[in-house]
Structures are given as structure tokens and as C-alpha cells.
Amino acid sequence: MRLGLALGGGGARGLAHIHILEALDDLGLKPVRITGSSIGAVIGAGYAAGMPAKDIRAYLLDCFVSPRIVIGRLWQTRPVSLQEFLSDGGFRIGQLNARRVIMAFMPPDVPITFEELDIPLGVMATDYFARAECELDTGDLRSAIAASAAIPAVFRPVRRDGRVLVDGGIYNPLPFDRLKGIADVIVAVDVNGGPDGDGSRMPTPIQAMIGASQLTMQSIIDTKLMISPPDLLFRPAVSPYGVLDFMRSREILTATESIRDEAKRAIARHVEHRLKGQGHPEWRSDGVAAALG
């Protein structure tokens, strides 16, 4: 039996992915493959590199502990010469260089290439001119993650292998379908959320733009779930938080903490059921045995 893990996009809401990774660590389980879109690709890369979930948690909390640290990291992404400035397109309001930002915030334990990862990783991006999704899983890792996280109007598109790539969430915000035929048990984590409110106030133009994008992605996810759902789907309660609320990282993790034990119990029950049904006792780890009592 092989376990596959799909981590969806959602910006800062994706910090809740860490709870599912911690549940897997508690159970002593490792996926045979991870697929991720946007923030799911970022966190998935850390886990695929062999970082324990607790280390990913600690690293990201350190990254966003204060505005000064965040500004310092972003300052590192500036062009260091006029040539680089012009190659970035000159003045582009609201279009950061995604690859440089990823490099500034990526844990040092994450290798340069996909081939160096401990766990195979598939990173979803959208091929802008081909009008199609694409899964990147070879070569330079950081440019792939940058492409997957390149939210339009926030980051400029990424050129890679002769293609212009943007946010993977546009076509495949929760890529569990990419694990079909590879994994026997597919676990998916949806952190897309949606606009949060009671209709008493009008959204700002930026909120309306981001919220509309979330609604579109949710429609894609729900359609895929109706056609061929994963074995287990987890949806942390992340809607109260914005896509760019990284400075509220600790609050997001605290508010969604309960999903860790829920995931641990659900995965343990599912594993037990599959083991009994298919007779593979060797797949039971000590962690799963303990969780099952």
C-alpha cells in the first residue's frame, strides 16, 4: 500500500497543511509522492526534502515573527544591478520576482533540484499561453515552486523550459487527481477557503479580486471531488484569514490546531481498514499501531 499526499493552494491559509504533516509524523507514515499547488508546493517541498513537520512549523514561524524580518528578507529580492532591474521588466507595480521571493523564504534544507528530494514531488503550474495545467517534477526546484506560487498581479510570471508559467491554482488548486494510479491511499488537504463575512459590508476591490479567485478555485475543486474524490479530504477552518496574512501565522496555526488529531484518527482508521481488507500487516508502522491502540 502506498500513501499519496496532495496539498492545495491558499496563500497564508496553507500554514494549516503543517497539522496534517504532523499527523503523518505522529503515525510514522511517509507518502510515496507529494503533489502541491502554490503554498502546497512550498510546504510540500520542505516535507519532501526530509524536514519533519515540527521543523517546518518552527522555520515558518521564525520567518514571519515580525515585519522587520519579513521586510529584510524581501529586501534581499531586489535587483542588484540595472541590468537585472531591466530584465525583471523595470517598474511593474505589484509584480514581485517570484523566484527571488521563494529563494529568500525557502528553508536551507531544501535542495536545488527535484532529483535530490527524499520523497518524489510534483509541483503544479499553469502554462499561460498553452492554457493548460502542467506538473513539474524534474530539474530546478525553486523555479518550479516560484511558478506554482506566481499569483497574478502579485508575482510576475515565470519563464521555464520555454514556457510562461503562472499560479498552479488557476487550473489545479488541489492536485489529488495527479496521484491516481501512483498511490493506493490518497490524502488531500484543501486550504482554499473562501470569502468570509455576513454581507453587511462591501469587499474592497482587492478583496473582491482575491475572493473571486477563491470562488473559482473552489468550483474547480468541488467538481473534481464529485468526479473522483480522494480517499481522505481535510478542510481546516481557514476562511477567516486572508491569502496574504502571513504575519498572522501563529494565529492561523493555533486556530486550526484541532485538525491534527482529527487527521491522525481518520488516517489511522483508514489505514487499519485497508490493512484488514488487503492483508498487508508489514505496512503498519509502530506509530500507526500506537494510534490504533
Helical content (DSSP H or I, runs of 4+): 40-55%
Please tell me what the overall shape is.
globular
- Main pleated sheet: 8 strands, mixed
SSE series: EHEHHHHHEEHEEEHEHHH
Q: Work out the number of β strands.
A: 8
Strand content: 5-15%
The count of helical stretches stands at: 11
Strand pairing plus helix content: what structural class?
Answer: alpha/beta
> In terms of per-residue confidence, which ranges show pLDDT below 50 for 5 or more consecutive residues?
279-293
Radius of gyration: 19 Å
| Mean pLDDT across residues | 86
Report how far apart the termini are.
21 Å
Walk me through what this model shows.
The chain is of the alpha/beta class and 293 residues long. 41% of the residues lie in helices and 13% in strands. It is built from eleven helices and eight strands. Strands 1, 2, 3, 4, 5, 6, 7 and 8 form an eight-stranded mixed beta sheet that branches. The two termini are 21 Å apart.
